[in-house]
């Protein structure tokens, strides 16, 4: 009953309340990134959701679009702005995704929505992560986030899909708050973000 009905109601009400509460922070970050990114404070990207349905995710834009002499984007670490680094460290870049939750594209809790090009690379077991709506935070995020391997992330995602419950979601919410305050697992070792998923080699 919770998974099929009450979870969506909980998502909508909590996301609406949180968006209203965080609106002053949203405005300040929006203006700061508008200036840092030359008028581009938001970042839109296609992501697969429940049942692999593609939707457009919205986040705060923490990196510039700087390119090298050949027209290729510079590495993440060179495009990450000072304010962008702070926004990522405090997880404020996730706030706009509350809009995705209100629309029904995402849930507050669930496997993180990754890139569409990863879809053919998943094993049958890993594909189970798409049986539920993707989340702003999830079991993998409170158990390592970007500091753990892709294989371990997917195991944690599938475990969540098979064990989701109201109490587990509440636990993940509280653990997420803790992780934000201590800034754990934001980046992979030696990376500004994380390495791309290259399949199960």
From TrEMBL:
Keywords per UniProt: Membrane, Transferase, Transmembrane, Transmembrane helix
Bacterial sugar transferase domain sequence ranges: 7-181
UniProt feature coiled coil, ranges: none
Transmembrane segments: 12-36
InterPro entries reported for this sequence: Bact_transf
MF (Gene Ontology): phosphotransferase activity, for other substituted phosphate groups
Domain of life, per lineage: Bacteria
Pfam families, A to Z: Bac_transf (PF02397)
Family per record: Belongs to the bacterial sugar transferase family.
Name recorded for this polypeptide: Sugar transferase involved in LPS biosynthesis (Colanic, teichoic acid)
Protein source organism: Mesonia phycicola
Phylogenetic lineage: Bacteria, Pseudomonadati, Bacteroidota, Flavobacteriia, Flavobacteriales
């Amino acid at each position: 009953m919770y998974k099929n009905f009450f979870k969506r109601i909980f998502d909508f009400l909590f996301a609406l309340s949180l968006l209203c509460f965080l609106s002053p922070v949203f405005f300040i970050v929006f203006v700061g990134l508008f200036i840092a990114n030359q008028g581009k404070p938001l970042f839109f990207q296609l992501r697969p959701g429940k049942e692999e349905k593609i939707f457009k995710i919205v986040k705060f834009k923490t990196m510039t679009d700087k390119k090298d002499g050949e027209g290729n984007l510079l590495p993440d670490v060179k495009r990450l702005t000072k304010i962008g680094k702070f926004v990522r460290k405090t997880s404020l870049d996730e706030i706009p995704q509350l809009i995705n939750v209100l629309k029904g594209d995402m849930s507050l809790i669930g496997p993180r929505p990754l890139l569409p090009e990863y879809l053919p690379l998943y094993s049958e077991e890993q594909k189970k992560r798409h049986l539920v709506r993707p989340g702003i935070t999830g079991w993998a995020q409170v158990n390592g986030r970007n500091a753990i391997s892709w294989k371990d992330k997917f195991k944690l995602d599938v475990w969540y899909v098979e064990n989701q419950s109201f109490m587990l979601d509440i636990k993940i919410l509280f653990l997420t708050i803790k992780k934000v305050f201590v800034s754990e697992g934001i980046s992979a070792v030696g990376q500004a973000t994380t390495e791309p998923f290259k399949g199960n080699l």
